[in-house]
Write a structure and sequence with these properties.
Layout lengths: L25 H11 L7 E5 L5 H8 L4 E6 L2 H13 L6 E5 L2 H10 L4 E6 L8 H10 L3 E12 L7 E2 L2 E9 L2 E8 L16
Parallel strand pairs: 1-2, 1-4, 2-3, 4-5
Antiparallel strand pairs: 5-8, 6-7, 7-8
């Protein structure tokens, strides 16, 4: 794995030791950023279930101002820290070991608001939409924030989630990516791209 583009382009990223973590492949990562960017002019990113931190690091490399990385596994936290150092992006990042819901509650208390969120829970968990609703309820999302939800391709999240509009849905082998925009209570007419199926 490596950083695909931006200021840290080409820098290698370590995998989490063991087999419990499923890193996003470079191919899928490149596809995600071609859909949501590919580059950014600032903003704050949250990488929940961070694993290696590859997605959040890629977002920082492509122009986001700051990132918060959350994971429960100590090995993942160590790997994220190492990868941030390798990418020379550690000064733009905060890394916390915590349960997702507890972490979101702590971020709410600190008044954090995000423009981009990566959600990549273990495939056995099908609560991505619940986490999105929880973040919206806690005021953690800026209007227009983009949510990138990775999940197994055999499972489909609804196109319509209250407060969110699905922008894209793409399948890459066993991995699916559903991209949503936070539209709050507004009746926003979003230009929807044709869904990508590969």
């Amino acid at each position: 794995m490596r950083v695909v583009s931006g200021t840290a382009k080409g820098r290698p990223l370590k995998s989490v030791p063991g087999t419990g973590t499923r890193p996003t492949t470079d191919k899928v990562k490149e596809a995600i950023f071609s859909m949501i960017g590919p580059y950014f002019e600032g903003g704050d990113v949250l990488d929940l279930f961070a694993g290696t931190g590859g997605l959040g690091i890629e977002a920082l490399s492509r122009g986001m101002n700051s990132a918060v990385f959350i994971d429960m596994e100590p090995k993942s936290i160590d790997t994220v820290r190492e990868n941030l150092k390798t990418a020379r992006l550690a000064e733009k990042a905060e890394v916390y070991r915590n349960d997702a819901n507890k972490a979101l509650g702590a971020l709410e208390k600190r008044g954090r608001i995000f423009d981009l969120v990566f959600l990549d829970p273990p495939y056995r968990h099908k609560f991505g939409d619940e986490l999105m609703a929880f973040m919206a309820d806690k005021g953690l999302l800026r209007q227009g924030a983009v949510i990138v939800l990775e999940h197994e391709s055999g499972y489909e999240y609804p196109e319509q989630i209250p407060g969110f509009e699905q922008l894209r849905h793409a399948v890459y082998g066993e991995t699916a990516v559903s991209i949503y925009r936070y539209v709050s209570g507004e009746e926003t007419d979003i230009d929807k791209d044709e869904g990508v199926q590969e």
